[in-house]
Amino acid sequence: MKNGLFITFEGIDGSGKTTQIAAFIDHLKRLSVSYDLFREPGGTAIGEKIRKILLDKKNMQMSAISELLLYSASRHQLSRESIIPALESGKVVICDRFYDSTTVYQGFGRGIDLSFIERLNSIATDRLVPDLTFILDIDLSERTNRIGVKKLDRLESEDADFQRRVRDGFLKVAKDNPNRFVVLNGSQAVNTISDEILAHFLNLCKRKDYAIFE
User: What's the pLDDT tens digit per position in 148-200?
Assistant: First the structure.
């Protein structure tokens, strides 16, 4: 049986990930490609309970290390319980955030040692690495406009300096790993971005010899 493909979407809050994931899934449906969609943190019964703890604004006093370990616990459960089995069955697996968010939010944002986070990411995922990662990039003023009066969770409520470090972190990890990352201008028209994502995905299918028409 063929192995699946693992596609992740990253970016600061308000960057358009949700919209582009929905558009990508529409493309997969038209191509009759079997897929699974997961989100982080969460995606499993245990992970969703952890998600509530992590995003609850009542927990603003949570330490950076506690935050890191909770994200990693949720990710380990998701990887073992859902992502790895789906990939082994040959599906395209889409994840709304994965360990790159931990590298960026807890590493660049919180200042936790990046080498420690890298080791923890590897352990938490059983060394699983996405085949392709899209970063939807917008500037912070655009983020403010898009979020508007939305009720913010604990991470979304962090100050502008934190959000700037997060955005810079995404761009840095993408620059350091050009073979896996695609940075997209999230301010472009939705269809323009969606078409670009599809083109990169189809190119990945060719490189990985992943037959999508079966």
Answer: 767 888 988 888 999 999 999 999 999 999 999 999 999 999 999 999 999 99
pTM, 2 dp? 0.95
Contact at 8 Å (CB) between 154 and 61? no
Domain chopping of the chain, boundaries: 5-207
- 5-207 domain in CATH 2.60.260.20? no
Buried b or exposed e, range 108-140, using 16+ CB within 10 angstroms: bbbebebeebeebbeebbeebebbbbbbbbbee
Vertex 159: Cα angle to 157 and 161 (nearest 5)? 145
Fill in the DSSP letter of residue 37.
E
Residues in Cβ contact with 87 at an 8 Å cutoff, skipping those fewer than 6 apart: 3, 4, 5, 6, 93
Closest CA to 107 of 76, 64, 147: 64
Q: How many Cβ atoms sit within 10 Å of the Cβ of residue 61? A: 6
